[in-house]
Amino acid sequence: MSKEPDTPTSNEATVQESKGIPRRDFLRWMGMGAVAGASGLASPLLVSAEHGRNPLAGSADRNWEEIYRDQYRYERIFDWVCSPNDTHACRAPLRHRLFCRGP
Predict the structure, then answer these.
(1) Whole-angstrom Cα distance, residue 52 to residue 91?
(2) How far is CA 20 from the centre of its chain?
């Protein structure tokens, strides 16, 4: 009996190609990372912060918070009747006479 080599069908080949990084390449990179970690090459990058000192104290830019709050800032609430037995739960915040995100 002659044994035919295992060849993936077209569907299996497509699935293997779409998985991203091949297993052998992944293992190769993991091996290089383990060697770098064991040899101490990565240790200067993993130094802990000094005790009692906030590492973000001098470099944190918090201007984004004002932009985030401004997304939800509105000038007034507009109420409307959206059904015959409405309980006035239909509200829309307005800013510059335009609907904006709800509170």
Answers:
(1) 48
(2) 19
pLDDT single digits (tens) 9-52: 655 555 555 568 888 998 998 888 888 777 777 667 677 767 77
Specify burial of residue 94 (Cβ count, 10 A radius: 0-12, 13-18, 19+).
Answer: middle
**Residue 99 identity (one-letter amino acid):** F
Q: What is the 3-state secondary structure (H, E, C) of 29-67?
A: HHHHHHHHHHHCCCHHHHCCCCCCCCCCCCCCCCCHHHH
Cα(54)–Cα(66) distance, integer angstroms: 23
- Which pair of structure tokens corresponds to residue 14? 């497509």
Q: Is the pTM of this model over 0.70?
A: no
15 or 62, higher pLDDT: 62
Tell me the two tokens of residue 71.
């997304």
Coil/strand/helix, residue 101: coil
The count of C-alpha atoms lying within 13 angstroms of the C-alpha of 64, restricted to the half-sphere facing its C-beta, is: 3
